[in-house]
Amino acid sequence: MARDYYEILGVSRDTDKEEIKRAYRRLARKYHPDVNKEPGAEERFKEINRAYEVLSEPETRARYDRFGEAGVASGVGAGPDLGDMGNFADIFESFFSGFAGGMGQTATRKRSGPVRGDDLRLDLKLEFREAVFGGEKEIRIPHLETCNVCNGAGAKPGTRAKTCPTCTGSGQVRRATRTPFGSFTQVSVCPSCNGEGQVIEEKCEGCGGNGRKQETKKLKITIPPGVDNGTRLRVSKEGDAGLRGGPPGDLYVYLFVEEDAEFQRDGINILSEIKISYLQAILGCRLEVNTVDGPVELTIPSGTQPNTVQMLENHGVPKLGNPVSRGDQLITVGIDIPTRITAEERELLEKLAKIKGDRTGKGGIEGFLGGFFKG
Length: 375
Prior knowledge:
Elements: H1 5-9, H2 17-31, H3 41-55, H4 58-67, H5 86-96, H6 98-101, E1 104-106, E2 120-126, H7 128-133, E3 135-146, E4 162-163, E5 172-179, E6 182-189, E7 198-199, E8 212-223, E9 232-235, E10 251-257, E11 264-266, E12 269-277, H8 278-283, E13 285-291, E14 294-300, E15 308-312, E16 318-319, E17 322-326, E18 329-336, H9 343-356, H10 364-374
Parallel strand pairs: 1-6, 2-10, 12-18
Antiparallel strand pairs: 3-8, 4-7, 5-6, 9-10, 11-12, 13-14, 15-18, 16-17
Helix pairs in contact: 2-3
């Protein structure tokens, strides 16, 4: 029995789109095959992706809520194709044509017109800064391309497909049977042309008569600034080539961002940490800190307490779709309190303790510093 997509992402049915996105990012990081090598992690990762594909799109989510998995079984975002009535016409013909030849008739017929190529998916890893600033990325994608020898016809150059002599181009063969109850006509796919209505006598050597062949293509795609884990990019017409002159499918690139040793991301904000000495915390200072834009000078005010958060405006992640608007960098300040000090440092600190009227006692300088940071 298929698992509930909401259960897979660990969210409730009334959860909004942003919470679904956050849940997906968290689980995608945890179960990505490059990170999690445990048995079953890859299958779990695929489940998570499928659940997010369905629930992240309002239309497919609505169909899933109403009909369950059956409502989205044809693929995410792929509703009934009302513009292509070929299959419906075949069913209509098969059902009603039985009454023309007698009491009953069955038929199966393949479409012989153009067929759109399949969509493809590619998972692409990005470094942290690549996701922040975007840019061009070269990828290699294996897909089916129209054969350049026969231009998709499947026949050897200088020849062409001929009308199938068995079915005379209809793609079907009929067989009538008389019974005491009347005449029955059985309609089936032509075995000679497999329902195409045409046969290729001399196949193209480049593609073996398929009209398409597997090729690996280099593409340059543009990564917009501000993408994150799970962002999906659509590259039009870079999927598999269609059959019989049909249009190619699309390529969907799913992005996964590698973790950075220094920075973490929280929405469009960037989080980082620095450590300063206790003297810098007491007296204040100016120091260089790293940002994704490069080193920036940060002012630490005197009396800064442990775990104070300092903000650098406009040094975060550009907003996806609006790169002019950026988040901030939030820097958590840690204070390094020494466990050992020199005799000279102790003497100076004890003098300072006397001036402040603090008792040092057995605890020594540690007691003094502890008292300072509490007060």
